[in-house]
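Chapter review: from sequence to fold.
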Amino acid sequence: MRSFFSHRLTRYSLIALIFLCTALAVVPSQWDVMQYFRDYAMHIMLAMLIVGMAFFILDQKQLMISSLIACATLCIFLKDASHQALFYPRANQTDLYRVCHINAASAERRYEDVLNMIEEHNPDFVTVQECTPDWFYFFGKALSGYPYEHRIELPISFGSVLYSKYELSPSDTIFINEIPNLISRVHLVDDKELTIVNTYLHTPQIVKESSDVNERLDQFTNYILDSPDSPMLHIGDFNLTYWSGSILDYRLESNLSNSRKGIDLSKMYVPYDHIFYSHHLECVNFYDLELNDGIHIGIIGDYLFKESQQKNKETFSSNLSRF
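The token string follows.
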């Protein structure tokens, strides 16, 4: 084995391959192959760490250092895109507002399983995307405790709805490729208000040009910038990883923070559903929703209003924000 790595050409070729994989995972591109590398950036980061430890055992210092540098680069890049705090802050449960997002298409027709999950977690708000008429009918009959709703029902898929325990008023609807993205204003206790944006975006495989994706996200940016004093939750199926260039640009321009701290690296699953929140709020908990057989159907986040309403912008490193 050592004789294999003793050749200079072999070592340099492996070093070049390591940094090439890292570059493919970090640098945005419209090519499908490079997009695949970027989507699995976290798994590539873990692979670089394992490979680096293997080279350490094999006493290949140059290859070990190169692998660990690649791992550290990906780690910094991904942390910059994630929830910035090392731990979620503790909070009084009475001060929390819990929001749950479900993709009905992912749940297929497992109505009772979804209902049991909602009842178990008892969220204050439930948003649903890709909601078909049968799901609307089921929720209308079975989902109790949510007297308020904002919905747009379509004849096939891509229906959208927000169920709420608190009074709400429809604020606006942004149609993207004829898919409704509901904007609802919720009236909470103590005269507080919260705006919830329920989103579904086409995947990059359908919308090839990244400029088209950015233009769609710009519609949300313009709405958010027009309401700088409104506490905001932007939740839904973006069909982009939270470290994608389009999402990073969107969050930077709209000054929204990410609720996710990371993903489960034991699975090949890559999350495309997210909750982004404004500086008025603080995320104190976030996790994925999975059925008993491990099928991912949605996400849940807990949020509270900050005591101080002083603007607390999330900062990005100057080098990574360009991605």
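Two observations follow directly from the output. Residues 140 and 146 are 10 Å apart (CA to CA). DSSP finds ten helices and twelve strands in the chain.
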